[in-house]
Design a protein that fits this description.
This protein is mostly helical and 473 residues long. The chain contains 16 helices and eleven strands. Strand 8 and strand 9 (332-334) form a beta hairpin.
């Protein structure tokens, strides 16, 4: 029994459209979106808030920097607890929408609608090309997440056999789903789609960072090649992203508090903006992660509440605020909108360049790139540049990798970094603890749990698919 990949979100998707006051096409047809008639309609379609917030905040629960000090032992069966303890399925109810999986395929539906139907719309041919290019870029970005969640870490020796996810190009809810593509095939699709898109993409997205641009395309290619372990191409594309778009790291040292950080739509260091779905307003960091910070790091002040004396000895006391720290700050009451960008930023491109330089043993260049980020995260009086002299290649690389944990703590990237570092033998064992500090779950080095299981809600309709391997408890 074959069912379309969109089955699990289409009802919610249509309900969202019916409630969206800004849309011109509210009376949706059940099978196809017949009221997308002009290129302006499709332009509005790509402004959907569902695309801006296309990532599941539950991804953060997989990472090693997050804590749940009140979790019960044995754990309850809620999806958050199942994700947090790396269980094989996030829900055992086949009637529910599959967490994380459905977020990305919902966005792919939007982009496929543009790619399949915009040629029939009235309006400028140049605008059609531009919107199709944005859709190719957006779809490629969604697949970059999917292949790094449900496929093994890219290995040039096995990528042609390792299964990933189905590559869906249809927006017809009646069409059958193709079989799972391989990791290599998905990466090939990603690179081909972005390469095809670049000539027709807008050169500037500064009025709306959620929309595509040439720089956004290169930045996603940089991230893709990093995950593939092709460090030369990762660096090349990171530099092209900086050359074609914003290239200044947002400087916290010039700001009084998190309220000075601009919204993601206009943030000057955002290359391609995205945030998470839902209303979750805080995360609980592990004590080890908090203790790894320099106490003068402004990211603590801007994003972490209840810092105390910075010793961080009580689990759950200090929390990461997803929109930045609010409250009375320097006499002003502040309600920030400083959400961490889940999409590529200038800082990410700089840290890719730093990592590649470190891996190439170009240690001075690595420190220079690292400095461009770190000097913007400390007040001038508190900052000392890391110099390459007296440090080994491994020490510099570890400094760069650690900086990624500080800069991208709760925006999905840590799990992807854990996967690729585990493939290199660089990840230690990760444990979850209950309130009594008893170990209740373990993620071992080289664990199959670094590749998520295909949701049972999907396999219910595709029983012939091969499930990903899983560690026996």
């Amino acid at each position: 029994m074959k069912k379309n990949i969109y089955k699990w979100f289409v009802s919610a998707l249509f309900c969202a459209f019916l409630l969206a006051s800004c849309d011109k096409y509210l009376d949706l047809q059940p099978k196809k979106v017949q009221l997308l008639e002009t290129v302006e309609d499709y332009d509005l379609w790509l402004n959907s808030t569902d695309l801006e917030a296309s990532f599941a905040c539950e991804m953060n629960l997989l990472a090693d920097n997050i804590d749940n000090p009140t979790i019960q032992n044995p754990t309850t069966s809620g999806s958050s607890n199942r994700i947090y303890t790396w269980q094989d399925q996030f829900s055992v109810d086949v009637k529910t929408s599959p967490l994380i999986w459905s977020n990305h395929y919902q966005s792919i539906y939007y982009f496929n609608t543009v790619l399949k139907e915009i040629d029939e719309a009235s309006g400028s041919e140049d605008m059609k090309k531009s919107l199709k290019a944005e859709a190719l870029l957006g779809r490629a970005f969604e697949y970059l997440y999917l292949v790094n969640l449900y496929g093994k870490v890219y290995d040039v020796n096995t990528a042609e056999e390792d299964l990933a996810v189905p590559f869906v190009t249809s927006n017809d809810l009646e069409d059958e789903v193709p079989d799972r593509s391989t990791v290599q095939e998905i990466y090939d699709y990603i690179i081909a789609d972005i390469t095809t898109a670049i000539p027709d993409l807008p050169e500037d997205n500064s009025t709306n960072r959620y929309r595509g641009s040439v720089a956004a395309a290169y930045s996603i290619l940089a991230r893709a090649y990093l995950y593939m372990g092709d460090y030369t191409k990762a660096a090349q594309n990171a530099q092209l992203a900086l050359d074609n778009g914003p290239n200044e790291v947002l400087d916290y040292s010039t700001m009084a508090h998190a309220g000075d950080i601009p919204d993601l739509q206009s943030r000057t260091d955002a290359i391609y903006s995205r945030y998470f779905e839902g209303s979750k307003d805080e995360e609980i960091p592990t004590l080890a992660f908090l203790q790894s910070f320099d106490p003068t790091d402004l990211r603590l002040e801007f994003y972490y509440s209840d810092l105390g004396d910075y010793s961080f000895t009580t689990r759950g006391e200090t929390k990461y605020q997803t929109a930045g720290v609010s409250g009375v700050i320097n006499g002003d009451y502040v309600f920030p909108d400083a959400h961490t960008n889940w999409g590529p930023s200038v800082a990410e491109m700089r840290l890719i360049l730093a990592e590649v330089a470190a891996r190439d043993n170009e240690l001075e260049a690595a420190c220079d790139e690292l400095d461009l980020v770190r000097k913007c995260r400390f007040r001038e009086a508190d900052y000392v540049k890391l110099e390459s002299t007296g440090h080994t290649q491994e020490e510099i690389l570890q400094k760069v990798l650690q900086e990624r944990t500080f800069e991208f703590p709760y925006c999905g990237l840590r799990w992807f970094d854990m996967r690729r570092l585990d493939a290199e033998g660089r990840m230690p064992e990760v444990n979850r603890h209950d309130a009594g500090n008893n170990v209740i779950a373990t993620l071992s080095p080289s664990s199959n749990k670094y590749t998520l299981q295909i949701p049972i809600q999907v396999l219910y309709f595709h029983s012939d698919w091969t499930q990903n391997q899983w560690d026996e408890e």
